[in-house]
Write a structure and sequence with these properties.
heterodimer, A: alpha/beta, globular, B: mainly alpha, 2 strands
Chain lengths: ~350, ~550
């Protein structure tokens, strides 16, 4: 028995030892919880530290960010929360995990339709949901509605309908045309799928190159990541096997989603957190968003990467983003209903 | 008569083992209890939608997936175990341990690797096209692997070792006498397999398959990636896409009930069979020597699972990692990530082993059904998807933190803050809660081979329960314990969802690193991390094979 207890004690002591990973929150530090891939955030975090001396500690969490924050409650070390989907961001606000802030810098840099009315959420960059098409295809313009056109039977590649990027697109469709039409549209796309609705956005380009599909829907920045060579020589081939069209809704524009941030409700380093957000909309940081991540800057007039600018002029759909976020649950249920992912 | 021995009476009166076993089980059940409270808080409005649109297909797909894997992994695992135990052929000693290697490869890595290998623009089809003189994949390509069939095949070829390992151990331990007896009675060699060896191995196959199937059921990475929508994937979209945690908890609990019922049903079905082992006269089985073509066939058949489940994906990863290192160099972070991975996994494994020994030994020294029920309950975490368990664990960490905080504030006037998450203890807790079944199963199998007469003899000599455990059971079952520990260690190192959610700020393991890269859609970026996971996983697997060897 005593041996048993002593081994349990040893184990507990060992567990204590890994506490080296714990990061104390000091004035010159800042803690970031992000659902955004760490590789994409790193250049921005490094540049911020260089310009302010404030160190950014981050943890990449995919699912369960809200649940972890709720459990940590008032003791949470989190200062800034970042997501890559508006629905997820507004979710944090609605669950009471964010706090509003007032910052003239943020208000000036971010257009009013791209931030919460009370200063409770902020867009940092934009990405468009675009069409990848076989480069030899005779196609110059496209609208989202025609994804369901039987002409494309067995020729459409897209990731899971339940992925936030797609639920946002479907939600935008509902906002434009109503739920009944959205259902018929989804059934049409489902009938057109060339393979299971799965994988990532880059798989769309690779599958077009592999002859599995002719067209597909994916995010704009992957074009830059592939064609620039940032992802290695293989991906340059994928990127050059496709041409990219900025599709529009009939009578509307191109659907965009955002990457954004909120300040955590119990942020221990609130001032540093605001500084971080203000930094992220500075010219310098917006340039990094465009150059390293190939996204559309949120700040008007900030330069767009040439590879992305070459895709054409982005005409953002006029729907309010919050309007789209409202239909997210309906969109997800429609995906189940039409059996999109099976 | 033993009931009258003073030690046994003392043990019954106080039974610290039962108490400890109860504590372990309680800790395992806490996160699940938390899930129940989440589930009952939600509305039941979701169920109409689920019954109409989700369950019919999710249930069908889950059944097909598990049925397919059960069959294929069962046949591969038991079949290869039979071949390498009952027959001798050139190369047998190597394949006998190499058959364990796929254990080191996480299911999600296998899925990524095979999509790359078999994609129309991948190496296999490109070579095939140049062989056939076809220029474009538009003119000729093989069917896409993102399908149910391939999901069953790929998962089976990495999960079969769960069946192979216990079945082979069972064959080596128990078969010699019975097989010799059956041969004396004129049973043919193939009839031996179906009429003697297989029925004999049934508990081992059942234990192995239940582990393999629960791995498959709770797998999110591979099945989602291959486009198969299981119940677990439905839980995911309910929770993540629709922010309905209560609804997700409800589905998870229903799934848990179904899994537990199935496991109980299997145990009930073989309730009256006994698998006693003659402790005094263990005999070594003399395998039948094969020669010529038969030996070659045996070697090929037993090598195929190794090639598909390990060699091909590992070779692919090596090639991809080399290309990646040439292109982007090596990040120094990978060393610290490997150390983190090992460290956390070792701690969790040590705790799991202690817990498993306590729980299993409580069954041995205790009386009545209670200790057995506790042992079954302690293993229940394996049937819960990793993320779901992690979500249930969050409120538990809050409670523990609050208590610890209250304690330190009262005693030392200082607060400990977020103790569980920031120390990594929450992560370790999740591993223990999830993989305890692996160690409990292994320890149980080991202890069941120690004849109860040995306990009684030691007791008669005046040793207490703890002393008997220390002097008799642990030394006698060292190989079985090592096997259990190594299996659990490999499982911890591969674990992704709970690690992702519960790790402290700035703490990365190989799995979280790989996932971060995979999310961006560049599996090659993660090739080095994937290769390291596999390479580190191979070490315990080889040790495992050596341990298995020394049992003989």
């Amino acid at each position: 028995m005593t041996r048993l207890w002593s081994s349990a004690g040893t184990a507990a002591a060992l567990a204590g030892l890994i506490a080296f990973a714990a990061v104390p929150a000091s004035a010159q530090e800042l803690n970031l919880y992000t659902t955004r891939e760490p590789g994409l955030m790193k250049p921005l975090m490094d540049a911020f530290t260089k310009s302010t001396g404030i160190k950014v500690n981050s943890v990449f969490i995919k699912d369960g960010l809200a649940e972890r924050l709720a459990a940590e409650a008032a003791k949470s070390p989190a200062d800034v929360l970042m997501t890559v989907d508006l629905g997820n961001l507004i979710d944090l606000v609605e669950k009471g995990l964010a706090q509003p802030v007032k910052s003239a810098v943020l208000e000036k840099a971010i257009p009013s339709n791209l931030r919460g009315p009370n200063g409770d959420w902020f867009t940092l960059s934009l990405r468009a949901r675009v069409l990848y098409a076989d480069k030899d295809l005779d196609l110059t313009a496209f609208n989202y509605e025609s994804l369901a056109d039987p002409r494309w039977k067995g020729k459409v590649c897209i990731r899971s309908g339940q992925h936030p990027y797609n639920t946002a697109l479907i939600a935008a469709y509902i906002a434009h045309h109503g739920e009944a039409k959205a259902e018929a549209w989804l059934r049409g796309i489902k009938a057109n799928l060339g393979r299971a609705a799965t994988g990532g956005d880059r798989d769309v380009a690779r599958d077009i190159m592999g002859g599995i599909c002719d067209i597909g829907i994916a995010n704009s920045y992957y074009v830059g990541l592939m064609r620039s060579g940032a992802g290695g020589p293989e991906q340059v081939k994928w990127g050059s096997a496709i041409k990219v069209i900025l599709p529009t809704f009939e009578g509307g524009g191109t659907q965009v989603n955002i990457s954004g941030a909120v300040i955590a409700k119990h942020a221990p380093n609130r001032a540093a957190a605001i500084r971080f957000l203000e930094y992220l909309v500075s010219d310098e940081a917006q340039k990094i968003y465009a150059e390293a991540d190939y996204e559309y800057p949120v700040k008007a007039g900030a330069p767009i990467h040439p590879l992305i600018a070459a895709l054409g002029t982005l005409k953002v759909d006029s729907l309010q983003l919050t309007e789209i976020a409202r239909y997210r649950t309906s969109a997800s249920k429609l995906v189940d209903k039409v059996g999109f992912d099976r | 008569l033993t009931d009258l021995s003073p030690d046994r009476r003392v043990a019954t009166r106080q039974n610290p083992w039962l108490l400890l076993s109860g504590v372990v089980t309680l800790l395992v059940l806490l996160p699940i209890t938390a899930l129940v409270t989440v589930a009952v808080r939600g509305s039941t409005g979701l169920w109409a939608h689920l019954f109409d649109y989700v369950f019919p297909v999710a249930l069908r797909d889950t059944t097909i997936l598990l049925g397919g894997i059960g069959l294929l992994a069962g046949v591969i695992g038991a079949g290869t175990a039979w071949l390498v135990t009952f027959y001798d052929f050139r190369g047998r000693t190597i394949v006998a341990w190499a058959l364990l290697l796929p254990l080191a490869v996480p299911t999600y890595i296998v899925a990524y690797a095979y999509l790359d290998i078999l994609h129309p623009v991948g190496p296999v089809q490109t070579a095939l096209r140049s062989l056939l003189g076809v220029d474009s994949p538009r003119d000729f390509r093989l069917p896409d692997i993102r399908s149910m069939t391939w999901c069953i095949v790929l998962l089976s070829f990495v999960l079969y070792p769960y069946v192979y390992l216990p079945t082979r151990a069972m064959f080596m331990m128990q078969a010699a006498n019975l097989v010799d007896a059956a041969r004396t009675l004129g049973t043919s060699r193939s009839a031996l397999f179906f009429r003697v060896a297989l029925p004999l191995a049934r508990p081992a196959v059942a234990v192995g398959l239940s582990l393999a199937l629960m791995e498959a059921l709770n797998d999110i990475g591979a099945s989602e990636f291959l486009g198969v929508r299981t119940l677990t994937v439905s839980i995911y979209s309910t929770w993540v896409t629709r922010s309905d945690l209560a609804g997700a908890a409800q589905i998870a609990l229903v799934m848990l009930i179904v899994v537990v019922s199935l496991v109980l049903l299997e145990r009930w079905a073989r309730r009256q069979r006994r698998y006693a082992h003659d402790a005094q006269h263990p005999r070594t089985l003399v395998p039948h020597q094969l020669g010529g073509a038969r030996a070659a066939i045996a070697l090929v058949v037993t090598s195929i699972p190794v090639a598909i489940g390990f060699l091909a994906p590992a070779a692919y990863l090596v090639q991809a990692a080399v290309a990646r290192v040439r292109f982007a160099g090596v990040s120094g972070a990978i060393v610290s990530e490997a150390i983190n991975t090992l460290w956390v996994s070792l701690i969790a494994t040590a705790i799991m082993m202690v817990c498993a020994v306590v729980v299993v030994y409580a069954v041995r020294v205790g009386r009545g059904q209670l200790p057995t029920v506790l042992a079954r309950l302690a293993a229940v975490g394996y049937a819960v998807p990793g993320t779901v368990l992690a979500i249930g664990l969050l409120p538990v960490t809050t409670i523990i933190d609050t208590i610890a905080d209250w304690g330190t504030v009262t005693l030392f006037g200082t607060t400990v803050g977020l103790l569980m998450i920031s120390s990594g203890a929450a992560m370790v807790y999740a591993y223990v809660g999830r993989f305890l079944a692996v160690t409990v199963g292994g320890v149980e199998a080991g202890f069941s081979r120690v004849s109860p007469s040995l306990d009684d003899a030691a007791r008669t000599l005046g040793h207490g329960a703890g002393s008997v455990l220390w002097r008799v059971h642990l030394p006698l079952t060292r190989p079985a314990l090592a096997t259990a520990a190594l299996l659990a260690l490999v499982d911890c190192m591969k674990e992704l969802p709970a690690t992702l959610l519960l790790r402290p700020i700035g703490f990365e393991t190989l799995a979280t690193h790989l996932y971060g890269e995979a999310v961006r859609g560049t599996y090659e970026d993660g090739a080095l991390a994937a290769l390291t996971i596999v390479a580190i996983g191979v070490v315990p697997v080889i040790v495992l094979a050596r341990v298995g060897h020394s049992i003989r």
